[in-house]
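Next comes one such specimen:
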Amino acid sequence: MKIKVALLDNNVVYLNKISNALKSNYGQKLDLYIFTSKETLLQSINLSDLHVLIVNKLMFDFQEIADIKIAKGYFSESKEISEINNFKAINKFQKINDFLEEILNLYEECFERISINKTNSNQAKIISYTSFSGGTGTSTIAISEAISKTKKGFKVLYLNLEYFDSTDVYFKNHQDTSFSNVVFLLKKDDMNLASKLEKNLSKDDNGVFYYSSPIILLDKLEINNIDDINKLITALKQMEFDYIIIDRNIDFSIVEKTIFDLSDSLRFVVDGTKIGNYKFLKLINSLSLVDKRENSSICQKIGIIYNKMSSSFNNTIQNKEIPVLAIVNKYNASDDKMLIDEIVSKNVLTNL
């Protein structure tokens, strides 16, 4: 479900600017209508069908529609003004994510609890990436798949749950939020958790959604427990993502077992070296024992993605029970972003 929002003001330039920004960044959340005259507004739309109406006080007095239950706010040109005639004042000149938050807050105050994307609840497919050792390029491959899926028109969240989060190395952060905000919200135990988490999302230029690296890396340890991970995944699945791609270092903990159980698919990134293949097979043997002992199905979800492959030095594992999802060659890119662009351009992860 999208929130239906109408804006009324006599400044055409401002309305076009705010409308373009909202549609570009949050078109999946809002149905937006803009008007420059009260008459056109009343003739064009049934006010009762709206969720949020924000108007210029000099053009429309809410006393005229006191009996219509929708969220109402007056435009203000000063951040110092919080109310106008007992209605919320919305500062016209603020960051676009702050403007969206004002809209969501108006909605929640009127309709009690936000229900954006409720119809798509629990539809997101969860793909978890991990590796038994560093240096295999797990994050590079995970992000490359996220971008590849986005290019196909899917809405994708890249969720880095590594303790040493490197998200900001790959993505350009456009917001003043980070995963530290996520940790705070999980600990706050807010009943509107999904909508609050959604407000803290960032969106990279390539279309992938993500949470910026936490201010303090140790913040991740605060949610290293089953309850918080379950709360986080449950809330994220209430949003309208097609895919949630989790990136996490393997640690054989009960939390990791929970993430594996919640995942639809598990991707192990292997570099094809002799020692790498040996370690991976030992890992699979261990996970098979876990499946037998706990009657779980972790191994059935596992697929291999070979990375940094060279015909001279790397070999695939001869095990028909483990599907090979993709083979990514070794590229001579000067940095990680260029490497991701190269992998995406080859379409090797497009159809996973």
Notes: Residues 113-122 have pLDDT under 50 and may be disordered. The domain at 3-116 is CATH 3.40.50.10850 (Rossmann fold). DSSP finds eleven helices and 14 strands in the chain. The chain has two domains: 3-116, 120-345.
